[in-house]
Amino acid sequence: MKLQPRFLGALACLALAACHGAPPLVTRPKDADAHTVFTRASVLDVATGQIHAGMDVLVSGDRIAAVAPQGTLTIPEGARRIDASGATLLPGLIDSHGHVGNGSAPPWAGEIPDPDRNLQSYLYCGVTTVLDPADLASQAFERREDVARGKLVGPTIFAAGPMLTAEGGHPVPVLEALTPWWIGWYIERQVTRQIDSPEKAREAVAELHGEKADFVKVAVDSIPDGAPRIRRELIGAIVGEAHHRGMRVVAHIGTLEDAIDAGESGVDAFMHMIYKDDLAPADVERVAGFKIPMVATMGVFENYALVGERKREPTPLEIETVSADVLASFDQRPEGAISPSFLEFFQKLRGHRRQWRENIRALREAGVTILAGSDTQSGVFPGPGLHRELALLIESGMTPAEAIRAATLDAARFLQKSEDPDFGIVEAGKRADLLLVEGNPTFQIAALSRIRAVMKDGVVLERHPVAQASHATN
Description:
alpha/beta; TIM Barrel; globular
């Protein structure tokens, strides 16, 4: 008997139903307010990086109705008032590389991914929009629609579905090395479409178009070194078919050669910085000439470069959203838990850490738009990972305001392919996805983690930290 993929997926979920038993991180209130006003707020204009103090911001339904100096607005009767004194109001954050279906525990912990909880974790941390460029679960597009219809609590999702890659190309070796045999083969079929001809490339794009994918993702990088790499002609076939159908293509890259092959094929964004090569000035100029935005994802490479080098210190948001057992498991790696080829890969990454920052700095100075993305996976948690990423972008020469813009307005412009997107900025008429944080994050990025309130589609969400939930059960 041939088991259907959905049935197999259901078996996996049933076998580990306990992973869904944790109290929710985020819930909607039973009765949403028709109108909400943030009073005495310092509003961050992400377009300019300027803070406007003493402002009132009125939200009606799912839209920002007005932004005006304190006391000048006509407030509807019965509106909920939120005192924003001492806090900064900014747009909800956008993770331009967030995998909703991935797990974030180390592979030896045996965790099964919980996409619904991942969605809650993003929101808990103020991430209200996610570009998911390849989902480990088979329900990526259904989940996107369930969130849009309000059946699931989560950020707005832009989904690419399975990534296109060479026969045996990334992420196949990663899945074979890091996932149990009994589920790895299933995940591999869900997350990839392995391409060996232009005809198969066009067929795969047509399939994704039929699923109403928001983007197409192609893996160009070779992980680990020596793994099969997709040919340029196949990248060109993917891009040509996608553009013919009105779709955009994002490319996973790692080397300068990857960037050149993808850039000359006409992809619309680079997923990852050039993390394997040190860029000379001529290289920087060549990459900048493509005028293609780059989602740096420095944090994921930092994460793997430091495996075994030091104790992993959790951030406050990780402590609030991740169980203590999972956080502790990173420092309890069993012997042989990581294959020698990947340990060698991680060691090579370690040698490039300083140069990553210089590459990003040089590319920005040459005019490349850098977007913020976390690349959710082992050691990179949904929501907290983006906050770690912003700190690394600042280490690479961005100001805090510039890093925030990479996770708000610039990302929204890319996602909607518009200079005037529907979200990503605090302005009248825009979608009311908002984040209220203690202090001034343009002065100290850590303030972005001190969250007072998260609003999604005009609704202030109820946030329930793990520590609070655990305490309540003791």
